[in-house]
Amino acid sequence: MKHILIVGAGQLGSRHLQGLVQSELALNVTVVDPFAESLDIARIRADEVVFGNQETNIQYLREVEKDTIFDIGIIATTANVRFEVFQNLISNCSVKNIIFEKVLFQKESEYEAVEKILVSNDMNAWVNCPRRVFPAYKSLKSLLENETCFELIVKGNNWGLACNGIHFIDLFSYLTGNRGYQLDNALLNERVIESKRRGFFEVNGTLKGYDINGNTFELCCDDSAGFSVSVNIVTPNYNVFINETDGDIIVIHNGQETREVYKPVFQSQLTHLYVEEIIEFGESSLTSFSESKDIHLPFIRSIREHLEKSLSEKLEACPIT
Q: Which of 42, 129, 232, 302 is the most exposed place for a label (fewest CB within 10 A)?
């Protein structure tokens, strides 16, 4: 029986748990969170789904037990404490494989430090930017594999540019095959927004990016009423429009238009797939830590610089999660 750890049992961690227990594999799952309320949320949500294997069991703990050996650890905490949580975990336990939530860390130094720890401990690690495993985007990757130039434009309101922008930059990297890029934050709104989570900030406006091959992206977000997000991908031969909110995909090729249904995939439908893939193959379709580090760092720097300018203060860390 494989031993799986989830650190952080709040909104996202509890969804990971829902997905995990749907696996047909018999799993020994440990959920750790210092707050009893979060553990209660996890218990309730685990009871809402049908277990894929009746031998799977879950234990809920306020702290991880020392010297425990885990096959896979999922760190679903907020970004401001993730580095400390990771350090404490590997100091007290053995973990062969790690899945990190994003945004990875708030300080640039923590990215290098974690990479060194992973290498020295021969640990595998990936980052949960799941659009590259969504069926719709996997099909799109295959459709556009021979295209030589990409323009990706994300538009919408209240989708969380600071919190979720890394998802779309990861998608850009996935579709183009390039992890290196540069950013222009001049069109971000000067006024920043205090996040619902205390101590974190959000931004609106437009963040532009480009890579050395001429591929570009724009992330556009405003604060008008409601919520929406759409993705437009333009190449020399295709114009693809994905309305993630309304569930539409439109592909225009050689003047011909085709329409499909876009089906969102929720975390509670994904986590067991991640775990089964790692257990069976020792690999994951998620972004590797090394690649995600390179994708994260320019974004973290750019958002921090913008926040420093808007808040008129020097920041030791980028306060987003």
A: 232
Alpha-carbon gap, residue 149 to 212, rounded angstroms: 11
Q: Tell me the CATH number for domain 2-129+269-285.
A: 3.40.50.720
Category of 264 on φ-ψ map: left (φ > 0), alpha (ψ -120 to 50) or beta = beta
CA distance linking residue 24 with residue 13, whole number of Å: 20
Instruction: For 177-226, write each residue's pLDDT tens digit.
Output: 999 999 999 999 999 999 877 789 999 999 999 999 999 999 999 999 99
Secondary structure of 227-270 as H, E, C letters: CEEEEEEECCCEEEEEECCCCEEEEEECCEEEEEECCCCCHHHC
According to DSSP, residue 188 is labeled B
242 and 136 Cβ atoms separated by less than 8 Å = yes
Q: Are 9 and 39 in contact (CB under 8 A)?
A: yes
- How far is Cα 111 from Cα 91, in angstroms, rounded to an integer? 18
274: left (phi over 0), alpha (psi -120 to 50) or beta: alpha
d(CA 126, CA 134): 16
| Model pTM score | 0.97
Q: Domain segments of the chain: what residues?
A: 2-129+269-285, 135-264+300-311
The CATH code of the domain at 135-264+300-311 is 3.30.360.10
> Token pair of 175, please?
């579709």
- pLDDT averaged over every residue in the chain: 97
CA dist., res. 211 & res. 11, Å (int): 34
73 and 101 in contact (C-beta within 8 Å)?
Answer: no
Count, residues in the chain: 321
